[in-house]
Amino acid sequence: MQRIVVVNPKGGSGKTTIATNLAGYLASRRQQPVLMDFDPQGSSTRWARKRHPTQGKVHLIAAHERDARVTLSFQLHPPSGTTHVVVDTPAAIPAQEMPKLTRTADKILVPVLPSDIDIHACSRCIRDLLLVAKVPRDQNRLGVIANRVRRNTLVYHSLMRFLESLGIPIVATIRDSQNYVRAAETGYGIHEMAGGLVREDLEAWEPLVQWLAQPAGAPPAAATGATSTAETAAATTAAPTSSAAATAADVGTRETEGAAAAATAAAEALMG
Ligand SMILES: Nc1ncnc2c1ncn2[C@@H]1O[C@H](COP(=O)(O)OP(=O)(O)O)[C@@H](O)[C@H]1O
Ligand SMILES: [Mg+2]
Q1: Tens-place pLDDT, residues 45-86
Q2: How many whole angstroms from 54 Cα to the centroid of ligand 1?
Q3: Which residue segments constitute the domains of the chain, with CATH numbers given?
Q4: Buried b (16+ CB within 10 A) or exposed e, 188-227
Q5: Which pTM was predicted?
């Protein structure tokens, strides 16, 4: 069973869109996905409840609606046979909640929009995932999704420069498309919608699906540039002052801190 957590404390970045469409995709592939909704706004819950019995089954766990009849761990327990748990998370989750949320995640997806505010928020989110949740960068668990992009806009190029500087794979670039709005309204995923209209959107999901299929721990195949700013900064920061004193753990921590600092610096340099 694979556990995929979609996270970004910035509201409106596309967490629910990614989580629901991923669940829809898995259901259309005859997998047995669970969609776990931790957001009190319940957008994923509403989507799942709109689904028709003839559609592929998405088992909903409305984690934000506490069921007093059972224990919490029972409520959150996926049914047997579950192949994937897709976790949708609320906006504004504090950094100290990140470790709990991501500890058991095989894959962590961070959707980000092309806007100055969202790029800054994303750099904070990545910093918290690396430093507070201590997600190792070399285990291929963390992927960024550029969402609602309009190519050939200045802010799109800013976003891509920022994402490339992170040294974290961009696992999908998803365009701004009414198909996602329609999917949200109807309880469908774009993979369950009629061919011609969604072809371009389906293509954008292929790298994402491939990345999810790569086992955690494998080196990131979709790495964004051999020597990104973040990598260089991490290497510089990680250079031990005294090799005797530098334990492997120390070096690991400094590499992560270097990468997180580089993420913040990259956002600041791009945005001014
Ligand atoms: N790629 C996209 N194209 C068009 N609309 C989108 C796209 N991604 C998200 N949206 C819309 O943007 C709004 C916010 O997205 P949502 O997934 O709910 O964000 P979050 O869960 O992070 O708050 C929703 O109305 C959603 O339908
Ligand atoms: Mg949401």
Answers
A1: 999 999 999 999 999 999 999 999 999 999 999 999 999 999
A2: 25
A3: 2-225 (3.40.50.300)
A4: bbbbbbeeeebeebbebbebbbebbebeeeeebebebeee
A5: 0.86
